[in-house]
Amino acid sequence: MLLCTMVIFSMAPRMSTSFWSAKETNILWRRRETEHLDCGRILRNDKEYINNFIGDKRISIVRNIDYMDMSCSSIQNRIIPFNYHLRPLKVGVVFARVVYKDYEFLEKQVQVSYHPQNNFCFFVDSKSDADFKWRIRRLARCLPNVHVLDEELPIDSAGHNMNLAHYKCMERMVKYPNWGYFILMQNHDVIGKTVYEISRIFELLDGANDIDIDKEFGRIEERFDWDLKTLRLFRDESLYTPEFLNKTLRISKGSVQGSLSREAVEWMVKTVNPRVYLDQWNEGVYGVDEQWISTFQANDFLGMPGHFTDKCLNETGNKTDFISRWSKWSWADEIGEKCGSKFVRHGVCIMGIEELPVIAQMPNIMFNKMMPSFDYAIVDCTAELIFNRTFLGQDDHPLEEDYYLNMVNVIYHKHHMESDYELNCTPGYEIWRNRKYPL
Ligand SMILES: *[C@@H]1O[C@H](CO)[C@@H](O)[C@H](O)[C@H]1NC(C)=O
Ligand SMILES: *[C@@H]1O[C@H](CO)[C@@H](O)[C@H](O)[C@H]1NC(C)=O
Ligand SMILES: *[C@@H]1O[C@H](CO)[C@@H](O)[C@H](O)[C@H]1NC(C)=O
Ligand SMILES: *[C@@H]1O[C@H](CO)[C@@H](O)[C@H](O)[C@H]1NC(C)=O
């Protein structure tokens, strides 16, 4: 790649061990293992070419980072695009991620979304290994907009402490100005849009939250009460009538990942206190982290800024479109037949290199999930795609602005206060879930 070579030359890189390719010192650096990949051919869905990197020929990375130079200057060289100009964003964002492994992958994620107006908040699972903790904490020492909270908590696959971790990031981040949306993420989510695209999406959402709302699964613990009074939800109860505080939350379930407006996050931290609610869920058994933002988003009477309602779920029995996260479930499908990569883990498709065209054309902000130990090529090619769009003006799939503008939650947010407003739960476009997959 000619352009790349030029950039490296002008960066006057300090070479590190031979383990890394020379591109290390450029933000487009690739691992040795993926250096030879032509991501452009993969983006064009050249099946013959893609066949060289799937099945037993997948490029995976198991143990890797021993040689990664963790001095601040090296970290900054890998992340900050010194040689490129970044335009200001209309909407800066917080990427709030609960993490436990794969430092290199996470550093790459910071790199692709790096912008002086964006912030990264990491909450570390206390069970993570010491080397991982050391690296992620170093990252925060070298970049002012990366925050790693001092506190750690044990977080498990049942979701215990997950919500609390995200809440602590909210508490931290409301102290910082200049961001407009807050994205809740988990370790292996991959951002699939540029900083400009994300900013534009949130500009179009214009204050509406983008949260998954689905039926509660019968996980609710009946031994607890879920009324606002018991939950001590509102910080200043004198502002509300006893009848209001006597209302019970209608619990719904949804993905942990989602996007909240800044106003919603400020409200979550300053107007309410969800701690009792979260503590009660933390006593549960499974999927205990999937009822927080979903329930708050659906219970419109709470008045969380940017909220939606559970009327559509009630009326149609279906969830409403949600774009923050792309994922495919493949239950009872041991061989992953429904997954592009033909690989499924705990019911979720793990993405492989053949899915770059999917990532390029879906309207979603993040993709769940990629795992370096399964396929690292997709991680590097996604980063190259975003680099090209950010810095080379590549226009392979212009943002579908009408998609975001016409989302049911966005229209609701814009108009629900108008007297003649009528909720229409049927989107006027084809939702991404119904698009062809795998390609
Ligand atoms: C990125 O841009 C370079 C230079 O134009 C091109 O060779 C490469 O195929 C592009 N990659 C992707 C994933 O679009
Ligand atoms: C609260 O609701 C319960 C039933 O849900 C009712 O029995 C009780 O009278 C209500 N209390 C107030 C103060 O409204
Ligand atoms: C949804 O259905 C539940 C149970 O039938 C009901 O209690 C609730 O009020 C309904 N919500 C809306 C917004 O209509
Ligand atoms: C609910 O979703 C199913 C499956 O996508 C669809 O067939 C059905 O028409 C939807 N129902 C309504 C009322 O939108």
| Unreliable runs | 1-25
What do the pLDDT scores average to? 92
Bound molecules: 2-acetamido-2-deoxy-beta-D-glucopyranose
Number of DSSP helices? 17
Widest beta sheet: strand line-up? 3-2-1-4-8
- The helix content is 25-40%
Structural class, judged by helices and strands? alpha/beta
**Biggest sheet details:** 5 strands, mixed
* Structural shape: globular
Strand composition percent? 5-15%
Q: What is the number of strand segments?
A: 12
Describe the structure.
The protein is an alpha/beta fold and 439 residues long. It has a domain at 70-318. Helices cover 32% and strands 10% of the residues. The protein is built from 17 helices and twelve strands. The protein has helices at residues 2-11, 39-43, 47-50, 72-79, 103-112, 130-142, 162-173, 195-205, 242-245, 262-271, 275-282, 292-298, 311-316, 356-361, 377-391, 401-405, 408-415, and strands at 93-99, 119-125, 146-153, 181-186, 190-191, 214-215, 252-253, 258-261, 325-326, 344-345, 348-349, 366-367. A five-stranded mixed β-sheet has the order 3-2-1-4-8, with helices on both faces. It has a three-stranded mixed β-sheet with strand order 5-12-9, with no helix packed on it. β1 (93-99), α5 and β2 form a beta-alpha-beta unit. α4 (72-79) packs across α6 (130-142) and α5 (103-112) packs parallel to α15. The longest helix is centred in the C-terminal third of the chain and has 15 residues, at 377-391. The two termini are 27 Å apart. One 2-acetamido-2-deoxy-beta-D-glucopyranose binds next to loops.
